[in-house]
């Protein structure tokens, strides 16, 4: 039990947090290099929880790019949830990376991805927890260089107090230049200030200490976007993430010209990947991940030149494996019958359509480019194809908005519902317009909290149909986002004071403490209206130090056209609008007509002909870090591993087909299991079972292992009806163990009882239950500090080891959670274990 004790010392914090799998690492395709053998070490920091950060493609791209560099170690870290932060602080344990569990302060570079402004307080928490001084001016020679990238840094002013450098634009090329520059500087023994001067010389890098008074820093863009292929082996999350699918970026940039859209302006021009390259990338990514949903990612996926051809080709290749396809970003007018037909073949992923405004007049102002007729025709096709609901996305507070525009939203929602008929649903989602930097509306005002509330109340009174539901973005969050996105350097002290006052996860409605922000705003003597007001056209902006490629003259011209009710054509079809984004090799790149690829000919339909089905029983272990995976996470990891290993699943029928897998019970979080079972149905097997086992084990996260695969005879009972009992070893560390005599005496006293009723609270009710019939044997070894137990299994419920510790040994629930529990074996009823080897 010595190694068990060491492991407990390392992982003891995880027993006391809500979702321990956020912090364990060991994922498939993660890279753990020896930092001491590398020239540069960097940690990619995402200031939100694991399941949010691992959904962002940009993080996966940079992780893959950096780990392809010779002698560079790149790892990851995510913001700890408040329960984990409390554990780290109370136990004086630093925030560490997932791969090597190294504190942030020990890396050469800490690189943050700033995706949304309401994560800023999390940045400061992560720095402090990781042992890095919050303010850039307080960092010494041995502290890491702290860099930020992502969409928020197009206005770096509110965070310049905390970052040494900002990467403006697309990061694939510039991140290589940064690590190579740091490596060269380290070899030369350069001091910190010299390293920062080196970074300031790199195109697209803004270093506040040295770039402040020079010409604006020009964003970096990838001219040959089709030439990049990363990541072909993305890290597979060990827990269910926000977007639990793989993303295939089919194009970058957008030419629609929506005047409110920062991404559409900043990431110009449009650059598409060739369809044959996308087919090959999809093949590689699916083989390396075992995922069952592929998202074709772009700012406007329907605008991709060969989108129908691409969807058909992918479906033809992957239908037998029930790979679902998703288009997460569609403009109303680009959704065709063929796209709908391909999307629904495996399962109907959700449909969100974004009219943005309720009237033609206001859609012209924002240059949205679609009509009411477009929307109604699209929703009619969606409903006719079998979807039961659609979501409509609108914004409140758009420039020139009138009350009739809000009435238009109500009217449009009701018309959409009528297109679907009975038993259809419409969800109206309302967000607040924020005049973001580098857009034609950056001069406009943002409505305040009172006005947001007034308009939300309007819809509460007007959208009354029982088949129309309404959602809206938290008005307090919109208010704060407007201040932070349009702020200057003074906002940095506001962020710091909010952090020191306890603010975390301000983008989570259940975590936002708006009273703290209100108090901090008062104490700082900052008038929020100063940041939300309309700006004069000749006024300077805090973000003027950044050149995002689109000229100020173009943005102003677009503002004037908006106010006079004029539209601007899509520059891919209507000619150049002279926005300034196309420079030199950086230009619009579209693929035109699709190539002919015989390999994707055919139709997506189920395989025909006779197939032989097999029923397999698979034995596996869940050990080490993997013991902190939930049952759902274990099932997902095993399913992906088996898919990658080539097992030909038999799928269920219906709306959401899934592999025919049967687990007898849920595996408890925190318990190590050395012998577990599940049954699986497969089609004809091409290889020996041992070969499948080898391949699957190569594709499972650390701690999950397939121990054996056996074909079951036809008469074999299901696994759930064959199990009789479980054998456990429960290690009690000295820190939590009661007096030895107490444990020994408690066990002895329990065993002499014929019944042992215990009182439990279940769903607000007190339940008395006799636990004695569930304990076949129980003993305690004082020398090992270990309980040995055999607990009987019942389909109607049994006794968990942690309940045994509280009810029999007398531990309180917190100490019971710290015990190291090992299920050493599953005991089958006599003659029912076909996998048993005498």
Describe the structure.
The chain has 838 residues and is α/β, with parallel strands linked by helices. It is built from 27 helices and 27 strands. The chain has four domains: 31-220 and 487-550, 3-Layer(aba) Sandwich (Rossmann fold), CATH 3.40.50; 350-473, Transcription Regulator spoIIAA, CATH 3.30.750.200; 609-716, Pseudouridine synthase I, catalytic domain, N-terminal subdomain (Alpha-Beta Plaits, 2-Layer Sandwich), CATH 3.30.70; 723-838, Alpha-Beta Plaits, CATH 3.30.70. The chain is 32% helix and 18% strand. Helix 3 (57-67) packs across helix 6 (172-187), helix 14 runs parallel beside helix 15 (403-420) and helix 22 (631-645) packs across helix 23.
Helix content percent band: 25-40%
CATH topology of the largest domain: Rossmann fold
The N- and C-terminal alpha carbons lie at a distance of 27 Å
Ranges with pLDDT <50 over ≥5 residues? 1-9, 598-609
Q: Total number of β-strand segments?
A: 27
- Largest sheet geometry: 8 strands, mixed
Count of folded domains: 4
In the CATH scheme, the class of the largest domain would be: Alpha Beta
| Secondary structure tally, helices | 27
Decide which structural class fits the backbone. alpha/beta
Return the CATH architecture of the largest domain: 3-Layer(aba) Sandwich
Work out the radius of gyration. Answer: 29 Å
Strand content: 15-25%
- Overall mean confidence score, pLDDT: 90
CATH homology superfamily name of the largest domain: Cobalamin-binding domain
- The shape, in one word, is globular
